[in-house]
């Protein structure tokens, strides 16, 4: 694997870690959940080899991207402004291709609506925009339960409540909503990534979940930009909450939901197949 060029960018209230591979039109990869630039390692090099400049980064507060105020509330618009700053730095004169996964897909949606002139095409994989759903009130209550459990019982009970609310069968078995925990026998790189995931979980649960799952996309604005937007769901996550949100949003916009391999984290479980479909989506 070719090592990326690693840099940092100072933004409002944070310092972002980002990684660049290849040469060509810019592809910005926006990770979701507790993922960072490392979550794209399995497909970023193939994208770069296909003639793109590929940029992944750690969202503010995650992994190597530090916050000036670790207790600051997190807002989708501010995260989208971070992504814009990267675009302006690395592709100031040309619109970019953007991929966002999960909470990163919410960021990508906001980036498209706020700065469409900077975007050539956006692919969003299972954005959990629960506010578009008819039963949105139930999911607001879920977020409130997660936050209450986090405050009163701690991280892992809160994650159990969250996973049960996301999964179609209401339990936590075979969940595909987060990166795996660190386990004995993992290769060193995977073990380090799993360890970082666990370290980022409190921030994700306490800051990202409430800040992002309350976000309501601008449907009317997205309707006018739908020719630049691909909404995708996982082949194996039908019925789960992020899939439902993506499918309902696609229906509202009158577009076809595209299916990518795997479930909610298919980009890490099926990186080659996922990357191949992503390249096709960028070209369509």
Automatic annotation (TrEMBL):
Source superkingdom: Bacteria
The family database entries (Pfam families) matched by this protein are listed as: Abhydrolase_1
Membrane-spanning intervals of the chain: none
Q: Where is the composition biased (Basic and acidic residues)?
A: 170-182
Which part of the chain is the AB hydrolase-1 domain? 25-138
Q: Which InterPro entries match?
A: AB_hydrolase, AB_hydrolase_1, AB_hydrolase_fold
Q: Which SUPFAM superfamilies match?
A: alpha/beta-Hydrolases
* A molecular-function term among this protein's GO annotations: triacylglycerol lipase activity
User: Key word Transferase present in the record?
Assistant: no
Keywords, ordered alphabetically? Hydrolase
Can you cite a GO biological process for this protein? glycerolipid catabolic process
Q: Region (Disordered): which ranges?
A: 170-189
Annotated protein name in UniProt? Alpha/beta hydrolase
Source organism of the structure: Streptomyces parvus
